[in-house]
Write a structure and sequence with these properties.
Number of strands of chain A: 10
Largest sheet of chain A: 6 strands, antiparallel
Number of helices of chain A: 1
Number of strands of chain B: 9
Distance between the termini of chain B: 39 Å
Number of helices of chain B: 7
Order of helices and strands of chain A: HEEEEEEEEEE
Helix content of chain B: 10-25%
Radius of gyration of chain B: 16 Å
Oligomer: heterodimer
Order of helices and strands of chain B: EHEEHHEEHHEHEEEH
Strand content of chain A: 25-35%
Shape of chain A: elongated
Strand order of the largest sheet of chain A: 1-10-9-4-3-2
Strand content of chain B: 15-25%
Chain lengths: 169, 193
């Protein structure tokens, strides 16, 4: 009888029967598969802790968002940071310092806007002061997420990662 | 209820063509209204002889061996069952391969159905529907050892189809069971039966 015929027996009682040999073969194959898979994962991982990291070194996250001359003191500039939904606002304070915040209000997520002296949320009249993004009026209780700003050679750069919203004020 | 090892016996000599078996077959719980029995008029112009055909339940069921979908199964008691609905692909291999012409692929149902000895009944010792109603006992479901005493004809369970020898669970009653009945269709067509 050809080997495949035993897999399709005529007798109902034979159907689904698994011999000890077949079960052992199944176990061995599955174990070998797991061992091989884990071995492969081990092999492609980075060699050792402390070994010189070349390709996997994190790239400094920096983003040029505007030219400094485009944002005169007392004005703001809107930009997105890395993802289209990450809307942010760059503020050039009247005293010449730069600030950047995520534009999302920490109350219910409306977009805040620069009104010349602070950041105002139009939805529920929340108000954030411009220096640290702290809430000073209205329903918000948490500060705006702040981004690191640097000005180099007349260009405004945002450094580091986008902070997660929700830090307590 | 009947006692002893039960066998199915077909005696075409006793058949009167009343079609009771066909009507009863459709009433069986496992047949769902479709009669599985074939009642043939053997030579209508010359004779009133009719012959019922139920499944012979072969020892090596050719229908099951020819099934590409592994849908036809035999239980431990030797009964070859109708195709399993989830598996049957209605390819008609079983229809073409069966030397007795038993399996039927019903149009619309797209599934092979065949005589399963009324398994809901025979598995608990009851007679299949056809044997229950047959008025002349041309279809007989009885303990094997009693049949020899009941009949002059003897049961035959071995058939020759070309070079293939088929042994069956169901028996055909013949006057002389000495030699296997040759079912070669080609010989029959040539008139060499």
């Amino acid at each position: 009888m050809p080997g495949w015929k035993s897999l399709f027996p005529v007798d109902l009682a034979e159907e689904g029967r698994l011999s000890r040999r077949e079960f052992a073969r199944f176990l061995a194959l599955v174990s070998a598969g797991f061992t091989g898979g884990i071995g492969y994962l081990m092999a492609r991982r980075k060699p050792l802790d402390g070994a010189p990291e070349t390709a996997s070194a994190p790239r400094p996250r920096e983003l040029r968002v505007a030219r400094a001359e485009d944002v005169t003191p007392g004005n703001s500039w809107l930009f997105t940071y890395r993802e289209p939904q990450d809307r942010c606002i760059l503020v050039h304070l009247p005293d010449g310092r730069w600030r950047a915040y995520r534009q999302t209000c920490t109350h219910l997520g409306c977009a805040v806007r620069w009104d010349g002296s602070g950041l105002q949320c139009p939805c529920h009249n929340g108000y954030f002061e411009a220096d640290q993004g702290l809430p000073v009026a209205g329903p918000p209780t948490r500060a705006l997420s702040r981004l690191e700003v640097a000005v180099r050679d007349g260009e405004v750069w945002i450094l580091g990662d986008l902070p997660k919203p929700g830090g307590k004020a | 209820m009947v006692g002893g090892e039960l066998g199915f016996f077909i005696d075409a000599q006793r058949c009167i063509g009343c079609r009771s078996c066909v009507a009863a077959c459709g009433e069986c719980g496992t047949h769902r209204g479709h009669p599985m029995i074939h009642l043939d008029e053997l030579d209508r112009s010359a004779s009133t002889q009719t012959g019922p055909t139920v499944c012979m339940h072969c020892e090596d069921p050719i229908c099951a061996m020819s099934c590409p979908a592994d849908a036809i199964k035999r239980t431990e008691d030797g009964v070859v069952h109708a195709s399993q609905k989830p598996r049957c692909v209605a390819c008609q291999n079983c229809e073409l391969s069966c030397p007795f012409g038993v399996p039927i692929v019903l149009p619309g149902l797209e599934q092979m159905l065949k005589c399963d000895l009324c398994y809901d009944r025979s598995s608990i010792g009851l007679k299949p529907m056809c044997a229950t109603v047959c008025p002349s006992q041309a279809l007989l479901f009885a303990p094997r050892h009693e049949v020899a005493a009941m009949r002059n004809a003897q049961p035959l369970r071995e058939f020759q189809v070309g070079s293939l020898t088929i042994r069956t669970r169901t028996a055909v009653m013949v006057p002389d069971p000495g030699t296997p009945l040759n079912l070669d269709a080609a010989l029959l067509i040539e008139g060499g039966f």
